[in-house]
Amino acid sequence: MKDLIRLLILLLSINLIAQDYTVDLDYYLPKDVSYNKNIPVPKSVIGHEIGEWHITHDKLVQYMFALAASNDRIAIENRGTTFEGRPLLLLTITSPGNHGKLEQIRKNHLSLTETDSNNSNLKEMPVVVYQGFSIHGNEASGSNAAIVVAYYLAAAQGSKIDDLLDNTVILLDPSFNPDGLQRFAYWANIHKNKNINPDPNDREYNEVWPGGRTNHYWFDLNRDWLLAQLPESKVRINTFHNWYPNILTDHHEMGTNSTFFFQPGIPSRTHPLTPSKNQEITAGIAEFHAQALNKIGSLYYSKENFDDFYYGKGSTYPDINGGIGILFEQASSRGHAQESDNGILTFPFAIRNQFTAALSTLEAAVAMRQQLLKYQQDFFRDARKESSKSNTIVFGDEKDASRVYHLAEILQRHKIKIYELREDFSINGKTFKKGYSYVIPKKQKQHRLIKAMFEKRTTFKDSLFYDVSAWSLPLAFNMDYFEDTSKSRTGSIVSKLKKPDVILPQTSNYAYLMEWYDYNAPKALNKMLQKGLVVKVGLKPFSVENKPYDYGTILIPVQNQKIDVNELAEFIKQIAKENHIKITGVSTGLTEGIDLGSGNFKKLDAPKIALIVGQGITPYDAGEVWHLMDQRYNIQVTKLDTRTLNRVDLSRYTDIILPNCRVSALSKSVAEKLKTWVKNGGTLIGYKNAGKWFNSNELLKMKIKSVKDSAQNISYEQKGKYFGAKVIGGSIFETKLDRSHPIAFGYKNNRLPVFRNSTIFVEADKNSYNNPIQYTDNPLLSGYISKRNLEQLKNSAAFKISGLGKGKVIYFTDNTNFRAFWYGTNKLLMNAIFFGDKM
Ligand SMILES: [Zn+2]
After folding, report:
1. What is the average pLDDT across 660-672?
2. How many CB atoms lie within 10 A of CB 765?
3. 183 C-alpha vs ligand 1 centroid, how far in Å?
4. Sequence-ordered list of residues with C-beta below 8 angstroms from that of 182, at least 6 positions apart, any chain
5. I need a surface site. Which of 146, 167, 619, 639 has the fewest CB within 10 A?
6. Rounded to the nearest whole angstrom, what is the distance from the C-alpha of residue 224 to the centroid of ligand 1?
């Protein structure tokens, strides 16, 4: 009895003694293997055990270079940099013998994807595995595990590793998101206690806005694989197409109380363009993960959530490129150890699961090597068979070479072959001009990917989506396009993409005119305004010197500027050249329509823009605006934090943008402050939920429809699905534009596709002139929406504006800047900024 009590006291006291949880490298590594002593262990370079601290990206880089230098299994390269200048490393790991003939192996491998590949030498060919980690920077167990994986592959000895390295080329991408990883490591490390405290309430486990998930401009990099707009993705996509990996793994983290997830995901939510064989192979690979996790006693599951629908994710992108994409999700310790439903979840435990799954992937790859290679060969062969011979897609916009260029750029990043248009032609009221249009033959290697990018889909097996249900690129770009069967339109192949040359304007003594169609027009205008020039916008169309000019044409008079005629001419030419934009010098003010001296030309002011960011604001939406201004248009924005909003002087700003937010994010006093600022002449621009806040604070009154219904014949088990089906995860809808309204300047068509991922429905105004952007009677273009929501959306307003004192309050129901690839609606925000006070 005495002993028992003593034991009990001992056990209790162990519980009370704070733990350290530090483990050494052996904890992670397979025990039945010996390791080369000449290979540096991580601690010898980074100064701590793996999992003891969160690896910072700079230490990760330091170790990887040291490791690569120590042996001949690893080649290391820096493929580019993040926005914050961090290197985007790739380690190519294979046997020294394979390294000696790597280029030959690569070419051989690529031949499987080429026309009528007869390569029957699958027995001899290595399999290619791309392993990527922590694309969400605050899901850090992945990148920390990547170090152990790299060490293992460099140092392990014996026939098993030799066999693995002989039969595999491993592309190890240790940190998909260096800026996010660094940001998160800083957070977790600065809060680490000597006596680790697993209390979830500790600050260590609760990041401040915007957190480490995203990249520099707060983008979710795991949505950008298809869109390829961000530097990290461009580099990755390049590596992908350089090798066409057979398996690509994407190591993530999920909620602390969960366990470990590996794909397959929910079967009914696989994209229909993905062959069913893909999911069979994924299930085959899954058996290796299960076995490996059984061995270390870790709980796991598959098939119950996550999906393979949106091709913009790392685990889905390979599925439309002849490979197998696999998602791993590890319960997150967030910091160093945290209480969970499964006991204390330590960081090392999370890292070990990731490491184990990384190794079981390689084991599966070796065992299933020939099957994977054969699948890849069949994928591309079948894809070619699916496409009829002469079909092409022609796309273009005779008014906007920049937008056309950016779409073509995406296609080229995915190694889709595009061709010049042989000669100009018109069809269905649209004109396609050489230099402003391209031709995509559908019969090519990337046939299926082209389909995935261009198709419109409105019927689905399932009504739930992990992410968006539509991303059709021509709609996102608001691009004229059509499918053609005439081969005669195809000109020469485009090897180096460039914008058509612009004819620079003649020096004028009178005025210059710039139409507002081009994607870069706002950038050009901003530069003129920042220079202090007098610049005006034409509110009506007109013709001068035999050329028609549309709504929103920019006028730069020559007289009474701060600079003389010649200096102005040079400056205007420079802008035209930089932006590939057409600017015309004219010699008369007399036009058909409004003369250049008319009161219908309104003077524009240089904008001083503030963007509200911080707690309560959706970081993605805010980051998209920041990125658009800073990267695309060179427009300076001040990021105003919600914490300081109450005490800053707003009078220095002409425009304030409030992205989607929690309605409770901003206080009553902030509302009053903004109201005063608007009354004094400011333009307040809000998105999505900001409208509800505008409405309740009487900044902008509108009727927001409320949809009330109750569940009928829905069981408790079906409850989640019932609510999920009401969500608009992201679909594309058609609006009609009133092109005479300044919000629609620069659009040549009177229909505009918009992206929507919310269920805010605003009643249209009873006066039609107050509805310049309105959903059509039959608005669904692509994606999923419930019948009830569709009814609400029909004919509702997408835009509201109201005067308040001397200023304006402007509201968009939907995000015009989604994921940096919605080039088609970016101009709406620029119109609100430059012309808001003219509306
Ligand atoms: Zn993630």
Report:
1. 95
2. 15
3. 15
4. 56, 57, 58, 84, 86, 137, 212
5. 639
6. 13
CB 225 within 8 A of CB 300: no
Confidence of residue 390 (pLDDT cuts 50, 70, 90): low
Tell me, what's the pLDDT at 117?
66
How many A from CA of 811 to the centre of ligand 1?
32
**755-771 per-position pLDDT tens digit:** 999 999 999 999 999 99
Q: Could you give the C-alpha distances from 469 to 300, 473, 535, 604, 778, in angstroms and in order?
A: 28, 13, 42, 40, 18
Strand pairing report for 807-812 and 683-687: parallel
DSSP string, 624-652: HHHHIIIIIS---EEEEETTTTTTS-GGG
The pairing of strands 127-133 and 761-762 is: unpaired
Is the pLDDT at 710 greater than 80, yes or no? no
**CA distances for 585 relative to 522, 531, 536, 576, 624, angstroms:** 19, 19, 15, 12, 35
Ligand 1 centre distance from Cα of residue 589 (Å): 58
Distance CA 833, CA 537 (A): 13
Look at residues 527, 630, 508 and name the one whose alpha carbon lies nearest to residue 217.
Answer: 630
φ/ψ bin of 680: left (φ > 0), alpha (ψ from -120 to 50), beta (otherwise): alpha
- The residues placing their C-beta within 5 Å of ligand 1, an ion, are 136, 139, 252
Q: What is the sign, positive or negative, of the torsion defined by CA atoms of 31, 35, 41, 42? A: negative
How many whole angstroms from 153 Cα to the centroid of ligand 1? Answer: 25
pLDDT at residue 9 is higher than 60: no
134 Cα–ligand 1 center, Å: 7
Could you tell me which of 59, 346, 60, 53 has the C-alpha nearest to residue 188? 53
**Looking at the whole model, is its pTM more than 0.85?**
yes
Q: Is the pLDDT of residue 817 over 60?
A: yes
Residue bearing tokens 């791309």: 130
Cα radius of gyration rounded to whole Å, the chain: 29
Residue 169 CA to residue 172 CA, distance in Å, equals 9
Q: Could you tell me which residues are beta bridge partners of residue 248?
A: 130, 325
Please give the DSSP secondary-structure letter assigned to residue 53: B
When the pLDDT of each residue in the chain is averaged and rounded to a whole number, the result is: 94
Strand blocks (E) in 4-83: 34-35, 74-81
Q: Is residue 178 a contact partner of residue 86, using CB atoms and an 8 Å limit?
A: yes
